[in-house]
Design a protein that fits this description.
The protein is an alpha+beta fold. Among the domains are: 112 residues, Uridine Diphospho-n-acetylenolpyruvylglucosamine Reductase, domain 3; 209 residues, FAD-linked oxidases, C-terminal domain (Vanillyl-alcohol Oxidase, Chain A, domain 3, 3-Layer(aba) Sandwich), CATH 3.40.462. Helices cover 31% and strands 24% of the residues. An eight-stranded antiparallel beta sheet has the order 16-13-15-14-18-19-17-20, with helices on both faces. Strands 6-7-11-9-10 form a five-stranded antiparallel beta sheet. Strand 9 and strand 10 form a beta hairpin. The longest helix is centred in the middle third of the chain and has 25 residues. It is globular. The N terminus and C terminus are likely disordered.
């Protein structure tokens, strides 16, 4: 986007991928270099604007929204350096996971673990502790060996364990509250092939064997629709077999026609006729058959997402994961919530970033979703009550109703993160209503967020 000729002229409205979080920033900048990024931050300081940073807009919460300066990372999309011998790869912060994976493959490298959506920017993914699944594998931020921040005064700070471990452990999952991530160095691994198997299985057996399945496979997850007694399992394991790429017609039929268009049709039917949702959910589960794929890791990890939704996800001590699923399923049955989307269940290894949702503990993740245009808040609040009782930590890029007061006790290093934040951004330049609510103020300052300028909306279905 071209910059406005008048620096005080309000920029165009910004919205997230789901379309239900929007803001009207005072200015929008899309720098193409670290120098331009620093200049934009300095400009905000001169204008007295607070700053938030947007990657690809794939967060479901109001974490990015601002009436100050919104920095878009979309032009910071280059791979800067590749060292195949060490596996260290330095990239600009705005490169998407999809594009990064494509370029890594050209160098015979890959990221060791990814989620099933690859549209996020690398900075947005690590800053919110985005993860895939794998009981022995940590989230994406744990693959960072170094990152560069542009601080509130326009200076740059290289964060690494060797330079300043305390700052590095805070910055790995920084929530955009310490500065703007400009560059990231990642530890990559030699490219590898995955054998992926999607198969239905009885829900009771899947829950009873959850720990066994999580440990026995490189990557294991499952989905279960409310009112259904079958789980849809997904296992991905490394293999020495030769990749067997699907034909374009077969891929389109499975990923677009069945997984997206057909599912979207059932969601629209459920939204119009909520009483039909239990029947539709059982029908979708029955139609899901077994499928196998053998291909490059990034191709197997990622799935297209064309059906728009909003989401909440909680990280739990792994031993509480099955209990959480059972309680959510029972709650939906008891309350009669109309839920056309499945519950998604994954695992991640512990790591040491201060605000990682898996900090200090092996974790299970339970995600709930709601189709666009349907009321999500009552359902999500009921789920959150269950997660609170089980020691849950909310995914930073997804919806939740927590505050700094309710979260502080869930993170052993909460105050250490706060100390780094106060040191790097003492005037709370990288702040908004979300940081004040979820992290608390660096020091008492009033919010500049105007309800007329920032709003949540429920868009009509396309």
């Amino acid at each position: 986007m071209s910059e406005p000729s008048d620096p005080h002229k309000r920029a165009a409205r910004w919205s997230n991928w789901a379309g239900d979080e929007q803001c009207l920033p005072a200015a929008l900048r899309a720098p193409g270099s670290i120098e331009e990024l620093a200049a934009a931050v300095e400009e905000a300081a001169r204008m007295g604007l607070r700053i938030r940073v947007a990657g690809a807009g794939h967060s479901f919460s109001d974490i990015v929204l601002t009436d100050g300066l919104l920095l878009s990372l979309k032009r910071l999309e280059r791979v800067l350096d590749v060292d195949r011998s060490s596996g260290l790869v330095r990239v600009q912060a705005g490169i998407t996971i999809r594009e990064l994976s494509r370029q890594l493959a050209g160098h015979g490298l890959a990221l060791e673990n990814l989620g099933d959506i690859d549209a996020q920017s690398i900075a947005g993914a690590i800053s919110t502790a985005t993860h895939g699944t794998g009981a022995r594998l940590p989230n994406l931020s744990a693959q960072v060996s170094e990152l560069t921040l542009v601080l509130a005064d326009g200076s740059t700070l290289v964060c690494s364990p060797e330079r300043d471990l305390e700052t590095f452990l805070a910055a790995r999952v920084g929530l955009g509250a310490l500065g703007a991530v400009a560059e990231v160095t990642l530890r990559c691994v030699p490219a590898f092939t995955l054998h992926g198997v999607d198969a239905p299985a009885p829900l009771r057996d899947t829950l009873e064997r959850f720990e066994e399945l999580a440990v026995a496979n490189d990557h294991f997850e499952f989905f279960v629709f409310p009112h259904a007694d079958m789980a849809l399992t997904r296992t991905n394991n490394r293999t020495d077999r030769q990749p067997r790429p699907r034909g374009r017609i077969a891929a389109y039929a499975k990923d677009v026609l069945l997984t997206n268009h057909a599912f979207g049709a059932t969601c629209r039917a459920g939204r119009r006729f909520p009483s039909s949702i239990p029947h539709l959910n059982r029908l979708v589960t029955r139609l899901a058959g077994r499928s196998e794929r053998v291909g490059p890791s990034a191709d197997i990890f990622a799935s297209p997402r064309l059906v728009r939704f909003t989401e909440m996800e909680y990280a739990l001590p792994r031993e509480r994961t099955v209990e959480a699923v059972r309680r959510v399923m029972e709650m939906i049955q008891r309350t009669g919530f109309a839920v056309p989307f499945p519950i998604e269940v994954r695992t991640v290894a512990a790591d040491d970033a201060f605000l990682s949702t898996a900090a200090g503990r092996a974790s299970g993740y339970v995600a709930v979703h709601m189709y666009r245009g349907m009321a999500w808040e009552p359902y999500f609040r009921a789920v959150e009550e269950i997660m609170d009782e089980l020691g849950g930590r909310p995914h930073w890029g997804k919806r939740h109703f927590q505050t700094a007061a309710t979260l502080r006790g869930r993170y052993p290093d909460w105050d250490r993160f706060g100390s780094v934040r106060a040191r790097l951004d003492p005037e709370a330049r990288f702040a908004n209503a979300w940081t004040e609510r979820v992290l608390g103020p660096v020091h008492p300052t009033g919010s500049t967020r105007s309800p007329a300028q920032i709003q949540s909306v429920q868009p009509a279905d396309a």
